Prior knowledge:
Blueprint: H1 5-16, H2 27-30, E1 37-39, E2 43-51, H3 54-62, H4 72-84, E3 95-103, H5 104-110, E4 117-120, E5 141-143, E6 151-154, H6 157-182, H7 192-195, E7 204-212, H8 213-223, H9 230-246, H10 248-259, H11 266-276, H12 283-286, H13 290-300
Antiparallel strand pairs: 1-2, 2-3, 3-7, 4-7, 5-6
Helix pairs in contact: 4-10, 9-10
Keywords: FAD, Flavoprotein, Methyltransferase, NADP, Nucleotide biosynthesis, Transferase
Catalytic activity: dUMP + (6R)-5,10-methylene-5,6,7,8-tetrahydrofolate + NADPH + H(+) = dTMP + (6S)-5,6,7,8-tetrahydrofolate + NADP(+)
Protein name: Flavin-dependent thymidylate synthase
Amino acid sequence: MPLTPDQEAEIAEARATTRPTLRAISDGMEAHLYVAHPVLDHGLIRVVDYMGDDAAICQAARVSYGRGTKAVSDDAGLIRYLMRHWHSTPFEMCEVKFHVKLPVFVARQWIRHRTANVNEYSARYSILDREFYIPAPDQLAAQSTVNNQGRGELLEGAEAQRVLDILREDAMRAYDHYEDMLSTEGQKGLARELARMNLPANIYTQWYWKCDLHNLFHFLRLRADHHAQYEIRVYAQTMCAIVKDWVPQAYAAFEDYRLGGVNLSGKAAEALKRRLAGEAVTFETSGMSRGEWREFCEVWG
């Protein structure tokens, strides 16, 4: 497990100490509290704290008192209605705080979602560990020929091994130089805030990331999608499993309407209606761009 002894001791102490509370709790989320879920080769996700449950969403929507005034089936129907019609504020009543350990280049993608509170481990004050993300062989792929942001065929044999060797050697060499610049043996030693600039983007960083459920669902819709980069997608998939246990009714609606749903532009909806009416619609007659037509055909054939 990619945890330091201090972190393991902190988790053990936190899980061993129980306290009575009057606030609403989720039994599913309680089981995840402080548990470190491994991701990639040295990464992790663990829940530090949370607020709310499925009933909190319904309570906010109805502005009622206590743990809801309707049956569970009514709550599920209300949550599905809220999700289906893109209501957001009731889902903002639930929040979660994660501790995440991730490669720097993944963190730079992740931070693009500017709807969370983030506090990152500071390499100005502390020295980063010698831990780097090295892809598994089945994740080494060439540049896609149809998607400028994606991967194509896997690298194999000698070429794959050459790439892995370069990644390891460059990361280790950069860290050796990092340590050498920081060293005060026979020299003043470079300031940590400057020495860090030489570290590669695959070194691991850590942060606390706190987000409400509405914005977390938006993050997961984009990052758990099969089009997302693998390295951030595996974090999102781990979070999906946690959220499913936390708010099962809300997650079921999210899975149905967002992860499993399809959004159509006006032109795409019109093309689908024409197809259903028996017309043979082609790219040239669809009015869509080539990219949109390709995505339309991936879903509808």
